[in-house]
């Protein structure tokens, strides 16, 4: 076989530097695990101690920015053309972004984090009630709005520039307003290399720790005789193989189906613990915990514990580590969220990404964490607290105090397995997307390549104890990326401002409204309903005559225009080609709408046989909202095209609009 002719969509400027850095870092972590871990830990500790304020201020800015957008004039802008529709149902969309955003961590930390806060020396002097409240409060803080705000800013920036500006779904595209065409050069490659390495390191460490939890659970449930590396290899090979198959099938199939199954399974487990656990206590503690979180929101957001020296190590190891972890994961999660969010409005995106996952996380952490603390005090006699230092096994130890513990243990392992696969398959998909600059279709061997690389390197590091070194590297990369995300905000605001002004531009003052010359014919049209054939006739005869006459007149003035005609549904458009900016397009299409029962039954209106009527609707090449043109005469249609063309020329002549109008030059609207 001649490998020179193997088809590939890899971009060499992104893939080769990324693989060199990824394999080099993993090699050092595997061959010299302790020295590498010590060096990276020192760097991480220096950043956490001396630059923790960068993380605090960055995450705070992300929250403030998204809340501002939620109530701003930009909130109704769509992530795509103005008439674009979401690709996935609301449930599937939420399921996929949730599975990608939290994944295995939701199971891993649901009992472990509250119990570790509850058992921490920082809160050791406090009464049980105070310790339990503090444990719930900080768990809410670490898994709440702040975490999802990081994902939200990255995902929103990516989806906005990809679907609104029709740029590649890549981190480099988020710098378009700042770098313009330079994003296609070395600067763009450097940004994508950084994103690819962050994504690979984050997924590798997460999957490595996920395998340890699965292996530990199987050992506790006596499925495997020991928690050994051999069984971890079997687990990784099986699950990554499934993930590769899922990734090959595409987001709309494998990833969506597994995410839906995951969410349903998680809800089932949640209800099981809620109903058979201390139900009244859990509902009450959730209610009080939510109020406590809201009351302390600003204090938590800005608290650096600078006056509490005893709490500083805890602050570095929890809050700052979490902010760094979420930021380092944001290229991967943001890219995946962006991939599935086309057609949503900015307001819909922010509400879904910020509120719904946060609320579910609060319910989940309350049910499991508060149940564990309640069991520890009332039933387990402090035994669960002793396992706080062993988070791999803590969930399964907790389930031993629930009915049907063996069944629920296996069910939890099943959920972790599916989370493992959904994290891996969406991660493989995202890595391939970055490495290929979002190529439309890649050969299957590339998906297999990323899956194999994930499996081999995670097992290698797991075997020699190098995962912690890689985790430190992942956390270190969060510092520069937090600055990059801040630049995303600057870039996004610049793009939104131009976008809003573009679509708010009114017609020229010279635009002439309807005259009263044809008022009788117009009245007849207004009170009649059109069927499909009459609208087709309007387009193919009256509109075509108007466009043809206008085309000839354009030619007489040295402007080349062409008429495009389409069927099913009938569409007609006049197009003027531009070399640098987007083409000017004015079109008319046959549109159907449903008429209310009231109109059908109204005696003082013309008869209508069914609840469907047709009308000719204008549309434009830049995706602006069109309108009904059925009452226009031929000359009025010509006039309408000309006023849009005049508007077009005014906009393209202004330098500030150059960025927006040339970003997708001469690409057809889908």
Structural description of this entry:
The protein is mainly alpha-helical and 670 residues long. 68% of the residues lie in helices and 5% in strands. It has 25 helices and 4 strands. Strands 1-2-3-4 form a 4-stranded antiparallel beta sheet. Helix 18 packs across helix 19. The longest helix is centred in the C-terminal third of the chain and has 38 residues, at 467-504. The radius of gyration is 29 Å and the shape is elongated.
Give the uncertain stretches in residue-range form. Answer: 1-5, 508-512
Number of strands: 4
Query: Could you give a short account of the major beta sheet?
Result: 4 strands, antiparallel
What is the rounded distance between the termini? 39 Å
What radius of gyration results from the CA coordinates?
Answer: 29 Å
CATH domain fold name of the largest domain: Amino acid/polyamine transporter I
Level-1 CATH class name of the largest domain: Mainly Alpha
Helix/strand-derived class? mainly alpha
Query: Numbering strands along the chain, what is their spatial order in the largest sheet?
Result: 1-2-3-4
Return the average pLDDT rounded to an integer: 82
Percent strand: under 5%
SSE map:
Layout: H1 12-31, H2 33-50, H3 52-70, H4 90-101, H5 104-119, H6 128-143, H7 145-163, H8 176-179, H9 186-220, H10 229-249, H11 251-276, H12 279-295, H13 297-302, H14 312-339, H15 346-378, H16 383-386, H17 391-399, H18 405-435, H19 444-464, H20 467-504, H21 519-526, H22 532-556, E1 561-566, E2 571-576, E3 584-594, H23 597-601, E4 612-620, H24 634-652, H25 658-662
Antiparallel strand pairs: 1-2, 2-3, 3-4
Protein name: Transporter
Membrane topology: Multi-pass membrane protein
Keywords: Cell membrane, Membrane, Transmembrane, Transmembrane helix, Transport
